[in-house]
Write a structure and sequence with these properties.
The chain is an all-alpha fold. The chain has one domain. 63% of the residues lie in helices and 2% in strands. The protein is built from 8 helices and 2 strands. The protein has a two-stranded antiparallel ribbon with strand order 1-2. The longest helix is centred in the last third of the chain and has 28 residues. The chain is globular, with a radius of gyration of 19 Å.
């Protein structure tokens, strides 16, 4: 019964060793990253840029430069895929458009919205950049491989578009709130207020998850669901670490504010 349910919402796995392997690798690597965040071994960006000190001297870049480097290759991969795979149908176009919009928004936020006080360790910039690029390319290629395969019994792409739009708007709104916390010349961290920050410390992660659930519903491939589940587990770990960090830095941090899910976690 469970396999029947899965097969009714997911395209049959394509005869591709690469996509099959990447489905497992994406899920396991992201889930492992989330577990590492819970254990205190953080990817060194944002407020965690100077944790996990190494014995050797670390190569550092500015946060703005690092973040721009993170998102640009994935954005270019998404945009260029329409030229590489033309005339592949509405579902493919929607997946590609969602990924292009997601990373284009990220680039615009880096350039014009977000304010940065820290730096980034190059040892974190490179793997995150590769992860975004490879996952974007894999999402698109997995969608390309569905050409000529019968559609799943349940068409979720329009539900996915709705979830994606809600996710990207909510994510942008809470990134904007974060950008307004610091006045001119200020570099320190403050407890976020407003929007859903009164309920959870990482509402931007919550809406990012919603956006990627939307992408997986549009795509309905095994890879997209594997990647989304891995992303959810990573952001659960990152939000847990973020709340723990705020509790350690601010005595007045409101204990009722959860990590990611209002009133629950």
């Amino acid at each position: 019964m469970s396999w029947f349910w899965v097969s009714s919402i997911v395209f049959p796995p394509p005869p591709s060793v690469f996509i099959g392997a990447m489905s497992a690798i994406s899920f396991l690597s992201l889930a492992s990253g989330g577990y590492s965040e819970v254990r205190g071994k953080h990817m060194q960006y944002s407020k965690f840029w100077d944790v996990n000190p190494l014995k050797k001297k670390k190569k550092i870049v500015s946060s703005r430069t690092g973040m721009l480097f993170l998102y640009t290759p994935a954005f270019l991969a998404a945009v260029s895929s329409l030229a590489i795979f033309p005339d592949e149908g509405l579902r493919f176009m929607l997946v590609d458009a969602a990924l292009s919009i997601h990373f284009f928004k990220r680039v615009l936020e880096v350039l014009f919205i977000q304010k940065y006080s820290g730096r980034m360790v190059l040892d974190s910039v490179i793997p995150i950049t590769l992860s975004y690029f490879v996952s974007t390319a894999s999402l698109i290629y997995a969608q390309h491989l569905t050409q000529g395969i019968p559609e799943p019994a349940f068409d979720l792409k329009y539900v996915g578009v709705t979830l994606f739009l809600v996710g990207i708007v909510g994510n942008f709104y809470h990134h904007y709130i974060l950008s307004r916390l610091r006045g001119k010349g200020e570099k320190g961290y403050k407890i976020p207020r407003g929007g859903m920050f009164n309920l959870v410390i990482c509402p931007h992660y919550l809406f990012e998850i919603l956006g990627f659930v939307g992408v997986s519903f549009i795509s309905q491939t095994l890879y997209s669901f594997s990647f989304t589940m891995g992303t959810i587990l990573y952001l659960i770990g990152r939000s847990y670490a973020t709340r723990k960090w705020y509790l350690s830095k601010f005595d007045n941090f409101p204990k009722e504010v959860k990590c990611l899910i209002p009133f629950l976690f």
